[in-house]
């Protein structure tokens, strides 16, 4: 605060010192008068039964009044700053806005000024001197309000940071493998202020897609983009459109949305979402920047154990190994379509855009290659799995004709 206009008149300064001394001697009565005015003017501060709260309010009022008196005496004083930062932080934690506190500070200033005006009149101070003093007091009021606002903002930022930390911890517990206990998850949800949903979906993000600028997400989405495998938890996903809206802020990212599961299955949903990202990166499944696992359940199922899958492919497609390379894919596509269409040759021809005679010729060749295997339902099931896997591993291009 700059030099007060009061300092330009020494006699006035002496009078103000005397006024401050008189008021300081009566500080208890002045404090009670100020508290009474605040409680009458701001009902939410009136808690006569809460002694701890009244002591806190009284300490704040006393500090403000002492600050006013120090202004009168031109004393260097910064103790009030920490006090009002703490008061502002307390208001934030109580869930109130700063409006009530700032109004209380103004009420306190008016009570103090009223007493000082009475003293000024008794000492016959000029209006100019009294006005200069009032300006200095209101400047101090602004300083108090600024300190309270700073404390409020600092506490809000700290709470947001702590809440983010708790929510990241909750996400870790939900997707832990082996799973965390239900009680630990429930307790973490309470401290994270997160309502446990009936169902949820995990979202996996490609690590290389995470940018420095944090995305804008719906407030009920759990997120941790700093982990090696960035992830989200979307509560109660009702439809792809709803999930798409929730993750709208992630449109720059490559991500996969896992199937909706019970909360206890969050780790599975995330594992499937990560697998979908991997399969998409390898060209095994399609998808743009947003991949829906529920659109690729067959591929996710087939590729759960790739070593076992490779064994099935090798065993069941061995009859095609002796066929010329330029015939192998057309025969494989024909056999897969035949299995998918319940062994209907005409449906195969329509699907592959082939003449029915071409399809029948290929089917006769396949019958010679596979023989009785084609008449065993269990083998046909394994054949379809093997053929789907074989097609998924091909370079992307139109189906062979």
TrEMBL record:
Domain PucR C-terminal helix-turn-helix: from-to ranges: 331-389
Signal sequence extent: none
Taxonomic superkingdom: Bacteria
Domain PucR-like N-terminal: 20-175
Listed InterPro entries: CdaR-like_regulators, PucR-like_N, PucR_C-HTH_dom, PucR_C-HTH_sf
PANTHER family in alphabetical order: CARBOHYDRATE DIACID REGULATOR, DNA-BINDING TRANSCRIPTIONAL ACTIVATOR ADER
Name of the protein described by the UniProt record: Fis family transcriptional regulator
Organism: Paractinoplanes rishiriensis
């Amino acid at each position: 605060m700059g030099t007060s206009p009061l300092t330009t008149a020494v006699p006035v300064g002496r009078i103000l010192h005397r006024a401050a001394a008189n008021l300081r001697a009566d500080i208890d009565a002045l404090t009670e008068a100020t508290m009474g005015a605040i409680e009458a003017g701001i009902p939410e501060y009136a808690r006569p039964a809460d002694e701890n709260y009244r002591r806190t309010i009284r300490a704040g009022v006393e500090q403000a009044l002492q600050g006013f008196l120090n202004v009168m005496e031109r004393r260097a004083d910064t103790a009030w700053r920490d006090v009002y930062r703490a008061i502002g932080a307390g208001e934030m934690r109580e869930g109130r806005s700063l409006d009530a506190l700032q109004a209380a500070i103004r009420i306190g200033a008016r009570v103090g000024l009223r007493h000082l005006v009475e003293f000024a009149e008794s000492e016959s101070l000029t209006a100019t001197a009294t006005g200069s003093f009032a300006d200095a007091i209101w400047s101090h009021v602004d300083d108090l309000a600024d300190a309270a606002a700073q404390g409020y903002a600092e506490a809000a930022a700290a709470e947001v940071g702590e809440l983010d930390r708790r929510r990241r911890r909750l996400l870790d517990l939900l997707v832990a493998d082996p799973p965390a206990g239900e009680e630990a998850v429930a307790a973490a949800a309470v401290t994270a202020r997160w309502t446990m949903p009936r169902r949820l979906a995990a979202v996996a993000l490609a690590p290389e897609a995470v940018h420095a600028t944090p995305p804008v997400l719906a407030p009920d989405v759990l997120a941790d983009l700093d982990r090696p495998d960035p992830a989200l938890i979307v509560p109660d996903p009702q439809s792809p459109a709803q999930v798409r809206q929730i993750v709208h802020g992630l449109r720059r990212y490559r991500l996969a949305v896992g199937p909706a599961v019970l909360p206890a299955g969050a780790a599975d949903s995330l594992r499937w979402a990560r697998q979908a990202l991997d399969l998409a990166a390898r060209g095994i499944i399609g998808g743009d920047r947003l991949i829906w696992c529920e659109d690729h359940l067959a591929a996710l199922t087939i590729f759960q154990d790739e070593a076992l899958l490779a064994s099935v492919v090798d065993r069941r497609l061995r009859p095609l190994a002796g066929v010329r390379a330029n015939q192998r894919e057309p025969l494989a596509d024909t056999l897969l379509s035949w299995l998918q269409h319940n062994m209907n040759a005409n449906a195969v021809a329509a699907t592959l855009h082939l003449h029915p005679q071409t399809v029948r010729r290929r089917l006769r060749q396949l019958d010679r290659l596979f023989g009785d295997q084609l008449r065993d339902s269990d083998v046909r099931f394994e054949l379809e799995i093997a053929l789907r896997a074989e097609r998924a591993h091909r370079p992307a291009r139109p189906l062979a004709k």
